[in-house]
Design brief:
The complex is a heterotrimer of chains A (97), B (175) and C (551). Chain A has 97 residues and is α+β, with helices and mostly antiparallel strands. Helix content of chain A is 20%, strand content 31%. An 8-stranded mixed sheet of chain B has the order 2-1-8-7-6-5-4-3. Classes of the chains: A alpha+beta (97), B alpha/beta (175), C alpha+beta (551).
């Protein structure tokens, strides 16, 4: 199984965030807590789906990632776009900062 | 778990029975699904207690045309608030068939749909929250908007009718 | 142009407050995301790939200068300095914050605008001919009826939770620029035998995953009866439209499954019971709305202007722009000027805050403060004196808004695609940019002539690919973007749904594929034929051959 992390959109501003090791949410995928097997992935998603998080984030789900050097990179192009920002506006999104 | 009608909480005085099974004693007030009403119409109308009918999405309210005055209550079930068929049923019952009894919304009845229901002829709301909370929700919902574009049977003046009234008044003043 | 009175104003303010409360309840956890979702959608707030998206209604595509200026301000203050004009003649912003959206809505309310019903399973923004009130070929200005439809459909208590979304379009001209045949309801103004003007009513058209051309449910409905007739259609749809499957819930499926005759019967039966009721609109009220859209104070001018002719002769770029982007006006001495939002290699339909402000200024100076949004994602200055066209174009040109390509191969409709949209399966903007660059040479575009390319990034067809002369649908094939080509679609009065040419193309191949289609067309066209005409004459095979050869 490939590595997985949990992503969601933050309720307040809609921005893409990732579940971190301390149970918080970061805009940087490299801060994400990684699940290496099915069991860990399920636990990660269960944690992110807790009802009390309904006022923090929206729509958590697991994505496949791989380690490229020091970076975590999603394997699906949809998630790459989601993680970086619009490919047609490289001045915007997370890729801009 | 509270029913709000005419700006107050009311008691549940009706027993809702399902499509099959025994009916409670003849003195009890009961609400039966439309299909059962059609099947057992004569015996149901012969009972002593009050009689109401429950409409579900897909039902035809017109089936009640001949008996509308015999019913004290009609409940319209919204199994999910996103299923909007009940709004049409409300208007047909009130505006076309002249139903004057209680028209109660049941099921997934939420605050943000109550004004729409009221505009479509509903006068009672069975909410899945406790008494005072339910009353507050209904009150808040009903006063959120004060301008209405569509003429429905709810008696509210539409923007258009108010405009006409104002225009007429101005013309009278001018002449 | 229609101005709000105190009732309209009050309603929008109340709505804004209502939404502010809903957001507050959501952020406080009083309502769940599941409960909040339809509420935010009915105020045009989506949650997209990267952020929230706010879609603002531009009723029937008509804007005043002060409104467009405010849209520019909102782009700057609440977004990242730009907005995207859509095929529903609306504008959407890509980066607003949820807790700031109520303030943005309040700023919109100040200029008589809102985001009401720009999403959700309700009646959406009514669209019409962007040249309404200006076009030389118009029977009657459709906007008074559009405004009446706007009011009738706004917070309609019975039709807020329909089986699915519902879109109405109106054309007042026999040359349909509003794509009425691919709407849930299309209204086409025409005269009956008695010489009265009314509407042909089409129902069940639409794009999406199951495209259909609408069918005539009634040849003629008088103006007074239009609204009760619409209500009858909507009630039949609300009661009988399918709710068991989201993809079969549009009225087109009901019409397709039950047959137009059965639907007509149901609607006529319903209508017979309400036609004499309070939705009947009398002549005096209609006259009141017609007055609101009275023509501006045109000057009596000669249709020929010497300076205009001189500028055309002296400046080839201006002459090119006039040739493609300027359209005949009903008033002598005036013209309709189209502002292209499709610069070569640009993002179709995007405009920056300062571009919006510039067009607002120009409309104030040269077009009676009137601006239109087209469903093909451009802007229009509808009433410009021919004598002023050169000044207008010069200003537009400086702001990268003077591209001469209206109706040409680079005037592409494109949905936001996977660069923004959470539903998309592939990107559409980068492809539109590459096609635009490939065909950027203006002489070549002139030679090709009218060619409508429309690109959608998923099967929902927001980019109208089914009705593109060449349509492109972006899909995901085993984790890669790939693109399916359709040919022969048309959104006009001769509406047709395009046919799939064959297997899809990779991102790398697709622009070459488009070029080979265009080359083939030039090869085999008869004099004066547009691409769509040639396709209709020769059919799919010659084009298929250049795409696939022996494959």
């Amino acid at each position: 199984m490939s590595l997985q992390v949990v992503t969601a959109n933050r309720l307040e501003d809609g921005l893409v965030v990732f579940l971190t090791s301390d149970g918080g949410w970061s805009e940087n995928i490299n801060d994400a807590r990684i699940a290496e097997d099915k069991e860990a992935a399920n636990a990660l998603l269960a944690e992110a789906s807790a009802p009390e998080l309904d006022i923090v984030i929206v729509g958590p789900y697991l994505i496949d990632v791989e380690q490229q050097g020091t970076d975590l990179v999603p394997t699906k192009y949809r998630e790459v776009l989601r993680t970086k920002g619009p490919s047609v506006r490289e001045d915007l999104g997370y890729q801009a900062v | 778990m509270a029913i709000v009608k005419n700006d107050s909480l009311i008691e549940q005085e009706w027993i809702t029975v399902d499509a099959e099974g025994d009916l409670p004693s003849s003195d009890e007030n009961i609400i039966v699904p439309l299909a059962r009403f059609k099947e057992e119409r004569d015996s149901l109308l012969g009972r002593n207690g009050g009689l109401g009918v429950e409409l579900n999405p897909g039902d035809t309210p017109e089936d009640l045309a001949g008996d509308i005055d015999r019913l004290s209550i009609i409940t319209v079930n919204f199994p999910a608030y996103t299923d909007g068929r009940g709004y049409s049923y409300g208007r047909v019952l009130r505006e076309r068939m002249g139903f004057t009894g209680e028209l109660r919304a049941v099921g997934d009845v939420l605050r943000d749909q109550i004004l729409l229901m009221h505009r479509c002829g509903f006068d009672a709301y069975d909410l899945q929250v406790d008494g005072e909370v339910a009353l507050d929700k209904v009150r808040a919902a009903l006063k959120e908007m004060t301008v209405y574009y569509q003429p429905t049977g709810d008696g509210r003046a539409t923007a258009q009718s108010l405009r006409e009234r104002r225009r007429a008044a101005l013309e009278q003043k001018a002449s | 142009m229609y101005r709000y009175d105190d009732f309209d104003r009050q309603l929008v303010l109340e709505r804004t407050e209502q939404f502010r409360e809903q957001v507050k309840r959501r952020l406080a956890g009083d309502i769940t995301e599941e409960q909040f979702r339809p509420l935010r959608l009915m105020n045009g707030v989506y949650l997209q790939l990267h952020a929230y998206m706010l879609r603002v209604a531009v009723p029937y595509g008509t804007l005043r200068a002060d409104q467009l200026r405010q849209l520019g301000m909102i782009a700057r203050v609440y977004d990242k300095g730009y907005g995207h004009f859509t095929t529903r003649q609306n504008i959407q912003y890509n980066w607003p914050k949820l807790d700031e959206i109520p303030d943005a809505l309040l700023d919109l309310a100040k200029v008589e605008m809102h985001a009401i019903q720009t999403s959700g399973n309700c009646i959406r923004n009514t669209t019409t001919d962007q040249y309404a009130g200006a076009a030389a070929d118009e029977i009657e200005d459709p906007r008074p009826y559009c405004e009446l439809i706007r009011q009738w459909s706004t917070f309609h208590p019975e039709f807020t939770y329909l089986p699915r979304k519902f879109k109405i379009a109106v054309t007042g001209s026999p040359n349909d620029r509003a794509a009425v045949k691919v709407h849930d309801i299309g209204l086409r103004m025409h005269q009956n035998e008695a010489g009265e003007t009314g509407f042909e009513v089409l129902v069940g058209g639409g794009l999406g995953r199951t495209p259909f051309v609408g069918k005539t449910i009634r040849d003629f409905i008088g103006k007074n009866d239009l609204f009760s007739y619409l209500e009858a259609i909507l009630r039949v749809y609300n009661r009988f439209g399918r709710r068991d499957n989201k993809y079969k819930a549009r009225i087109k499926i009901l019409v397709h499954e039950e047959g137009i005759d059965k639907i007509r019967e149901l609607v006529e039966e319903e209508w017979s019971q309400i036609k004499d009721g309070s939705l009947r609109v009398d002549d005096a009220e209609i006259a009141h709305y017609i007055e609101q859209f009275a023509p501006p104070a045109f000057e009596a001018l000669s249709d020929d202007d010497a300076d205009f002719e001189r500028h055309k002769a002296e400046n080839r770029r201006f002459a090119n722009w006039v040739r493609s982007n300027v359209i005949e006006h009903k008033q002598p001495g005036y013209a309709i000027a189209n502002v292209s939002l499709k610069p070569i290699g640009g993002i179709p339909g995007d405009a920056t805050d300062t571009q919006m402000e510039l067009v607002a200024d120009l409309s104030e100076k040269y077009s009676f403060g009137d601006v239109r949004v087209t469903h093909e994602q451009n802007l229009v200055l509808p009433h410009v004196k021919k004598a002023d066209l050169f000044a207008v174009w010069s200003e537009l040109d400086k702001a990268d808004l003077g591209t001469a390509n209206l109706g040409y191969v680079t005037d592409i409709i494109s949905c936001p695609g996977l660069d923004y949209c959470a539903l998309a399966t592939a990107r559409s903007i980068p492809l539109s940019q590459r096609i635009s660059e490939r065909f950027g040479d203006l002489d070549r575009q002139h030679d090709i002539g009218e060619l409508k390319i429309k690109i959608s990034g998923c099967i929902n067809a927001c980019g109208h690919h089914h009705v593109g002369h060449i349509g492109i649908l972006g899909l995901d094939k085993r984790g890669k973007e790939f693109y399916q080509i359709t040919l022969g679609g048309d959104a006009s009065q001769d509406a047709s749904i395009g046919k799939i040419a064959g297997a899809g193309f990779s991102e790398a191949e697709v622009v070459d594929a488009i070029e080979s289609l265009v080359t083939k067309y030039i090869d085999i066209r008869d004099g004066g034929e547009r691409f769509i005409d040639t396709y209709r004459r020769v059919g799919m095979d010659p084009f298929k051959e250049v795409l696939y050869g022996d494959r």
